[in-house]
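Request from the bench team (R.T.):
"We need a structural guess for the complex before ordering more flavin-adenine dinucleotide. Sequence and SMILES attached. Just send the tokens back."

Command: build protein-flavin-adenine dinucleotide structure.
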Amino acid sequence: MAWDFETEPEFQEKLDWVDSFVREEVEPLDLVWPGLQFTPLEGGRRQAIDPLKEEVRRHGLWATHLGPELGGAGYGQLKLALLNEILGRSSWAPIVFGCQAPDTGNAEIIAHYGTPEQKERYLEPLLGGEIFSCYSMTEPHAGADPTEFTTRAVKDGEEWVINGWKFFSSNAKTASFLIVMAVTDPDVSPYKGMSMFLVPSDTPGIDIVRNVGLAGDRSDEGSHALIHYDEVRVPAEAVLGGEGQAFAIAQTRLGGGRIHHAMRTIGMAKKALDMLCERALSRTTQGSLLADKQFVQGYIADSYAQLMQFRLFVLYTAWSIDKHNDYLKVRKDIAAVKVVLPTVLHDIAWRALQVHGALGTSNEMPFASMMLGASVLGIADGPTEVHKVTVARQVLRDYKPSDDIWPTEHLPKKKEAARAKFAEYLEHEVGNL
Ligand SMILES: Cc1cc2nc3c(=O)[nH]c(=O)nc-3n(C[C@H](O)[C@H](O)[C@H](O)COP(=O)(O)OP(=O)(O)OC[C@H]3O[C@@H](n4cnc5c(N)ncnc54)[C@H](O)[C@@H]3O)c2cc1C
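Reply to R.T.: structure attached below.
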């Protein structure tokens, strides 16, 4: 029997260290410098954060999503899941551990598809944690369906000229380079006619029209850019992975990104459950603790069960990715995890908010932003509806239609077959009656 839910003791020791390091050293960064994770380090922030990154490196936990050839520990997805569920407690933690989205996904595709020159120019500084990157794919008129994209790249001698609009390009304002998806051949299927380009962010013609914020952000603090690419010229060597490869590259990138979000979501949902339980044990009303009220017990039980189901599903999916070493082979489960993720986080955060009463709704507790986070996770990296379609299609592959007008499990049909199978004995039984 190979099924085993134990963590090996040496790795558990590392996880225990990560748990206390994140609680004591990293979570305070979320309170002192909220929302500045993707701003280049300077002044006091650099003085505070560089030693933390160093400490992570000393423990061999820097960029563990990458193999040793790229400076990571090559842990694989299962160990990464156990690590990421702790990092999910804090929005600064992925930065301190060198594994923040979208840079992880961007690094993965450059590592996978990049030329030696592209790796030296973009990947090495990205892995060092000194620069940020941006993935510029969604357009103002189309997101979930990339076949609708119209941003165009046209060959002009030895250069490509990019024209078009992109929307919600996260961190474009602080990124050193952008990965831009554009139509390079409109005469073939979009699956073969789009390419990815590595574009330095100081290239003339990149116009960040505005940085859109999420609900609750101040109007001047958004980080999701509306970008006009206006005659942006890049050399032929800027193509990543060859002409027409954009869809294949996007799949590689998004598979990893989705499961990593799910791993961190476990940590966030667990934090909400912790707060729910603490409140239930701390607040008395109508003569007893909230923890003694059946409604609240229901909130706790439902939250625990939802979290456990989700956690086991994420760990199983991570284990499957390691086993197959191929995101595509685990597509069904990655999509299914992505489908349940927003509901789990939303439900647990909502219950935690509810038992905190007025305080729960306030900006002195994190529940409203967790609930917004749940909505965001239901849209970013593809909306839930689209992932449900993927799950359903993949599930249906294991089935075939009934071979007559009645379902296979139609009881009269099965009964008739069963009676035929035991006809000899049934006759005897009838004879004895
Ligand atoms: C916080 C955040 C960060 C993001 N960062 C980036 C980034 O860095 N780079 C980038 O390129 N993009 C980014 N995105 C964009 C994201 O990838 C898109 O929002 C997503 O793909 C959906 O596209 P859309 O917003 O255009 O919605 P649409 O494609 O217009 O879909 C809108 C809604 O229509 C419904 N719908 C869509 N398709 C179907 C279907 N097939 N069946 C049934 N219903 C459907 C769903 O309800 C969906 O939510 C980010 C988004 C968010 C929220």
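Two things stood out. The mean pLDDT is 94. The beta strands are 132-136, 152-156, 159-170, 175-183, 194-200, 206-212, 224-235, 239-240, 284-285, 288-289.
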